[in-house]
Each structure stands twice: as structure tokens, then as C-alpha cells.
Amino acid sequence: MQGTSSKVFITGCAGFIGFHLSKRLLDEGFTVLGIDNMNNYYDPILKEDRLKILKKNPHFSFIRGSMENLELLEKMFEQFNPDAVVHLAAQAGVRYSLTNPQTYIQSNLVGFFNLLECCKKHKIPHLLYASSSSVYGGNEKIPFSIDDRTDHPISLYAATKKANELMAYTYSHLFQLPTTGLRFFTVYGPWGRPDMAIFSFSNAIMNKQPIQIYNYGNMKRDFTYIDDVVESIVRLMNNGPPKGDSQPPYKVYNIGNHKPVQLNDMIKLLEDQLERRAIKNYMPIQPGDVPETFADINDLIQDTQFTPSISIEEGIKNFVKWYKEYYNIS
């Protein structure tokens, strides 16, 4: 895809990954149309502040709306006629899906179905969409490979993400719609999501509140820095759609750092950067949680010639620098 001549439709553009991807593409001369429902799953002010940055670019247009609104989506596709679609809008969170399941069905299933229908109708050259490392469920084989079975999700959130992959495969098979699934592994960094561990722990530590450490600290996460995630998406976009040949034009990738980090080690790094000690409350593992995530990224490296490489030390340092600036902490 060539900068100024390329138009990209990004769903969830005021979200964490959506904001960073939109900004990167705008900086490279793309025209970006974004949609976001600006819900209050976490502080909407953070989403508004991300949007303010994007709106400074004349090549960015924004529609406030939900993926469940098929009529609105149709209108956007007809007027904008995108060269590619990156679908990042979703109801996120494993634990939230235990208490608010209906939200996941509407946003993650109905919303994704509407998007697939629009992409089919308008013959979109390439749809890239967010999946999640949670699709691997309770898999004990490490690292997680895209060739592993993913038919035992242990949360409704994971089930909806697996359903998205199956729906995408069906549309690729039936209608030759090129789709690329992105299985994200614990993405973090500046402008991140307040419900994610690094951000929520920072809030608790700075407010002298206890942090809940599940599985008694015996958790490992493949923390993946936002810049590595965006670079992976951009390269997959620039590569063009998966090649059909005799198979459907469909592929999924693990987007991870390939270096799992013990939760206690992450907390120590956070304490050092924040210059405060955490009040630790150790608890059993929660329903829907997995003890370890670890991405096999061989396909990503092979197809994009890119290896995510930003270390947890550098990533947390960058996050805390942003966090202190954003909240005016001296």
C-alpha cells in the first residue's frame, strides 16, 4: 500500500492499539477513517485525549458509533471506499466477560458479522482483525503456535475471539474475502488500557493501594510493547492479503514478544521506575485466567522479516515516563 493513495478504515480508533496504529498511518501519509463508540468500559477521557491527537491531522476522519449499527457501517463503506480495513473494536477483558456477557455477544459477534458483510459487499482487498492469545485457552504446550488446537476457550471473551477467526475463515472460503487474524499477546505501553496489569498496578502503587497478584505471583505473560505491535500490523498490511491459490485467502499470526516475563519480575521493574513499593495481595488464579502465555512468532518473522524486540525493561521505562507526564506526577 502506498501512503497518500491509500485509505484505511480502522475500527476502535480511540482504543489503545487503534490510536497508535491510526497515528502511525497518518504520519506516513495514509488517509484514515475511524469509528469508535467511546464506551465507558474504562475512562472515556483517555479515549477523548487520544482522539484529540488524531484529529490534528487533516487526513483523519472520525465517526462516533457502534459496530452493531449495520446501517451506519454501510454508509461509511459507501462513502469512504477503503483499500484496507483494520478491525480493532471489541469488548475486551477476560474477567469483565464473567459479569457482562451480553456486551461481548453484541460487540464481538454481531459487530464483527456486520463488518464481514460490509467487506464482502464492497469487495475489500484486505481485512485485518484483532484476535487474542486467549484463544489458546488452557493449552499446556509452550510456546503457543498458530498450528495448535484452539477449540477449548476458558472465557467467553476467548470464545468470541475464536468465533471471529472461524467467521473470517468462512467468509474467506465462501467469498474469497482476504482476512488476516492478529492474535495479540498482552499489549502494553504509553496510552495503554487502564484495566491492563501494568497500568492498573501503576495506579494502585501511586495511590498506595494494594495490588491483586493472582496465582500467587506464578503467572507469566508475553508482554508485547505497542510499537512492536504496530510495526507488525503495518508490515502485514504492506505485504498485502494472504495468497489464495487453492486455499482460502486466510491466515492468523501470533503478535508477541516471544519472551514471557514472571509477574513478580514485572512488578519489580514497575516499582523501580515509579520509585514506590507495591502493597502486594497474593490471591489464587481467577476463572478464565491462564498461568502462562508465550508466542511462537516464526510465521510473523518469516512473512514480515520483523522480530518484536523491545524489552520489558525499556517498555516499562517508556510507559512510566508517559504515565507521569499524562497525570502530572513529578
UniProtKB/TrEMBL annotation:
Keywords: NAD. InterPro entries: Epimerase_deHydtase, NAD(P)-bd_dom_sf. The keyword NAD applies. It holds the Pfam family Epimerase. Signal peptide: none annotated. Residues 8-256 form the NAD-dependent epimerase/dehydratase domain. This is NAD-dependent epimerase. It comes from Niallia endozanthoxylica.
